[in-house]
Design brief:
The complex is a heterodimer.
Chain A lengths: L15 H7 L4 H34 L1 E4 L3 E4 L3 H8 L1 H34 L3 H15 L2 H12 L16 H26 L3 H9 L4 H12 L1 H16 L3 H6 L13 H10 L4 H25 L1 H4 L3
Chain B lengths: L2 H31 L8 E6 L5 H11 L3 E6 L5 H13 L6 E5 L3 H5 L21 H7 E2 L2 E2 L2 E7 L1 E5 H6 L8 H14 L6 E2 L5 H10 L5 E2 L7 E4 L4 H15 L3 E2 L6 H9 L4 E4 L3 H8 L7 E5 L12 E9 L6 H10 L5 H9 L8 H4 L2 H4 L12 H10 L9 H18 L3 H18 L3 E2 L1
Parallel strand pairs in B: 1-2, 1-3, 8-11, 10-15
Antiparallel strand pairs in B: 3-14, 4-5, 6-14, 7-12, 7-13, 9-10
The chains are: A mainly alpha, B alpha/beta.
């Protein structure tokens, strides 16, 4: 899960027009001011997201062969991908991975955040920093370090962590190490925003520390938990950097189609199948969208994102 | 809540990624515009990843007044190919001259973005190179690249380990196995060698020696291609190595990994089946073992045979994005060429194995004593190996074909499955792919 794979949440609507309206200025000026405020973001959005997306969609509708050149093919690339065992097994793999990884990650981050929130000592500040440090280490460096640790020769364990049955769990471990601290900070910040009076009231009503944590704190930060979960789901579905870096260590287990993102990358930049790669990317995008939406739908009561 | 910093950070990352792509896409177009400076000096942009290459560039720039090389290391192997393919596809961003390995040349040439250097006089130096190397880069009078170095294969072995366990230097693969068993019995933690299933070139070399010619292809014969990956020679070699791996006589650590370097340094591996560039590579990754290694010819399938194999080798091609193809051709021809001054750096510092005959017979090269090999004249082993390597065709979709081999054999190693079945899988996948790509299978 690379840092660049995280998708920014939809930006809050600019407040400028509302403020202008309150001041009772003319309609024309309101609009101009509003447009000016939105313009930088809109331009960047169009230039760096919408146009590339449209272009990628266009080339995904063509078929290119090494000998024949480009021909319009409609949705043939998509049909091919549906029946492409390498692609579908990759999708299945990241779905399974996400199903295990997301709860583990969120639970760990939440536990750490609750512990931090409960204790205020010098040690807790140190712990907060220490848990966050892995996120500051570039993903490539972090993964290389884990590659050394996982090695049966240079690592301290003498076990092959990248063998057929251990590799997915090992990759999950790298991802957890990298992102749990970051998610913890998000949850911790949310916890800090909860008014202290609520805890006091709960304590007066006879709630213990554990009860306060489970019955008061967790529900109060449920929106943040949903946010962190969605980030994690999107990240795991777009799993890329860690398997790519560890691939040379064991090409038999981490194949060139290990995750859909790696498959798309190789199709485009190793095999020059730009069209097929674009189709795969769009299908992966659809899977990510559906996955995130389903999760938000299932948690809509808690997420405050209705 | 912390949503805002997240958003800002991600936006920055996305922008960086976009700029990163844009940068590779437009970096060299600027230099193309400025290629011809005021004094009539032509600047030629070169991509290459040879070790110690700056010195070679300096020699060229010192000895050429009107042509100057601007050198960039755009990554080694696949990293560079990814960039060059993308730049060629994009129509801008490619250098004038680019380093390409033999096995990759047909793939990049298929894009029809390489300049035929024959029209700029490259055929004049044809006789300077060993025949098989020239045939790798040319097609009749069309010359798509100028050969630089090669990777004739030989056996590098640890003399101290061989002495300690009284092993005999094997001349056949049968002996290699017998000695491997002796070593295993005497020192169970050791391996005779390492079988790096992540390196297609290594496995292709081993199969080549056993008679495998998996592909029949020539750019002038498009769209025809012959695919015969699971031929008898290939199966013979892979059956042998399956046995070596199954009996734990050969380790299965990937080549180029830290574990592999570790094994070479600690004496876990008694031999290293290497190419002509191997000694230089070895002396940089296993410095502490200096003086303990020796070189011997590659073991043979039949006693007394002299069948050789090649693993790697590279060349310089000129792209059609060059504004100065004539000068670019001159750079490709003369940057190493068969001149002694650049090759001295190539031999002494970069450990390149030449394909130019004047260098292959140059006393300085042939009789150079290597301290790392206890003073042995290593090239007396490698030169005959270089002369004995036969012609060999590669596919015009080498990345795909190579990945099929490493994946299939890699999985067979992992699952302890049949290596020859893996070759059948590769054959199926490659023919399937070639058909889909519009090639006509012969």
């Amino acid at each position: 899960m690379g840092s660049s794979t995280r998708t920014a949440p939809a930006p809050a609507p600019p407040r400028a027009p509302a403020r202008a309206r309150r001041r009772g200025r003319g309609v024309g000026r309101q609009n101009v001011a509003g447009l000016l405020f939105v313009a930088p973001f809109t331009l960047l959005l169009i230039a760096f997201l919408l146009l590339p997306l449209a272009y990628a969609f266009k080339i995904s509708l063509y078929r290119s062969t090494l000998i024949g050149g480009d021909v319009f093919a409609g949705f043939e690339n998509y049909r091919t991908a549906f029946h492409d065992h390498e692609f579908t097994s990759g999708v299945l793999r990241v779905l399974v991975f996400g199903l295990v990884q997301t709860p583990v990650m969120v639970a760990l981050a939440l536990l750490a955040a609750l512990l931090l929130d409960a204790a205020t000592s010098r040690f807790s500040r140190l712990f907060r920093l220490a848990a966050f440090v892995p996120y500051a280490v570039p993903a490539v460096i972090g993964t290389l370090m884990w590659g050394f640790l996982y090695s049966p020769n240079t690592g301290p364990f003498g076990i092959d962590f990248l063998a057929q049955h251990t590799v997915l769990a090992s990759l999950g471990n790298v991802v957890t190490w990298q992102w749990a601290g970051y998610n913890m900070i998000v949850l911790y910040a949310a916890l800090q925003g909860v008014p202290r009076e609520v805890y006091e009231a709960a304590r007066i009503d006879g709630a213990g520390v554990v009860q306060v944590a489970l019955r008061v704190k967790v529900p109060m930060v449920s929106a943040a938990i949903v946010l962190v979960s969605v980030f994690t789901i999107i990240g795991t579905l777009q799993f890329f950097v860690e398997p790519l870096i560890l691939q040379p260590l064991n090409p038999g287990t981490i194949t060139r189609s290990y995750t859909p993102n790696i498959y798309a990358f190789n199709q485009a930049f190793t095999y020059q199948q730009y069209n097929y790669s674009a189709a795969i990317s769009f299908m992966l995008g659809a899977v990510v969208f559906v996955g995130s939406y389903l999760f938000l739908f299932a948690t809509r009561k808690r997420s405050a994102l209705r | 809540m912390s949503a805002l910093p997240v958003r800002v950070r991600n936006a920055a990352l996305v922008a960086c990624a976009a700029l990163g792509i844009a940068a590779t896409g437009c970096s060299s177009s600027a230099s193309n515009d400025a290629a011809k400076s005021a004094e009539g000096v032509v600047h030629i942009k070169v991509w290459a990843w040879y070790p110690e290459f700056q010195g070679v560039v300096d020699v060229f720039n010192r000895t050429h007044k009107n042509i100057q090389i601007d050198w960039t290391n755009a990554g080694a192997g696949t990293d560079e190919y990814t960039k060059i393919q993308t730049a060629l596809k994009a129509g801008k961003g490619a250098p004038d001259v680019v380093m390409i390995e033999f096995q990759e040349l047909p793939t990049i040439n298929l894009t029809k973005h390489l300049v035929d250097m024959g029209q700029y006089g490259a055929n004049a130096i044809k006789g300077d190179f060993v025949d098989w190397a020239w045939s790798q880069v040319s097609d009749g009078d069309k010359v798509y690249a100028i050969p630089v170095d090669a990777g004739p294969m030989a056996l590098l072995y640890r003399k101290d380990i061989f002495d300690k366990y009284q092993l005999k230097v094997p001349t056949t693969w049968d002996e290699f196995r017998t000695e491997a068993q002796k070593l295993k019995a005497a020192s169970p933690g050791s391996f005779m060698t390492d079988f790096g299933a992540n390196d297609a070139g290594f496995m292709m070399g081993l199969m080549q020696q056993a008679g495998s010619r998996p592909y029949t292809y020539s750019a002038s014969n498009l769209p025809n291609i012959g695919v015969n990956v699971n031929n008898d020679g290939a199966k013979k070699a892979m059956t042998y190595w399956q046995g070596m791996v199954a009996d734990k006589l050969a380790d299965t650590t990937g080549y180029g990994t830290t574990d592999f370097y570790n094994g070479l340094t600690t004496g876990k591996y008694a031999t290293y089946i290497a190419a002509g560039w191997g000694p230089g590579y070895l002396s940089s990754v296993a410095k502490t073992t200096s003086g303990k290694w020796r070189a011997a010819p590659l073991p043979q399938w039949t006693a007394g045979g002299t069948v050789q194999a090649d693993w790697g080798g590279s060349s310089f091609a000129v792209t059609d994005q060059s504004q100065h193809p004539k000068e670019a051709t001159q750079v490709a021809m003369e940057i190493f060429g068969s001149a002694q001054e650049p090759w001295k750096i190539g031999i002494d510092k970069a450990f390149l194995f030449p394909t130019a005959k004047p260098i292959l017979t140059w006393d300085y090269f042939v009789n150079k004593e290597y301290e790392f090999f206890g003073g042995q004249k290593v090239n007396t082993v490698f030169v005959p190996a270089a002369n004995g390597a036969g012609t060999f065709d590669w596919t015009p979709f080498n990345d795909f074909a190579a990945n099929q081999i490493t994946t299939a054999i890699g999985q067979a190693v992992q699952k302890k499955a049949s290596f020859t079945d893996a070759l059948d899988t590769v054959q199926r996948n490659v023919t399937d792919y070639a058909g889909k790509q519009g090639f006509k299978l012969q």
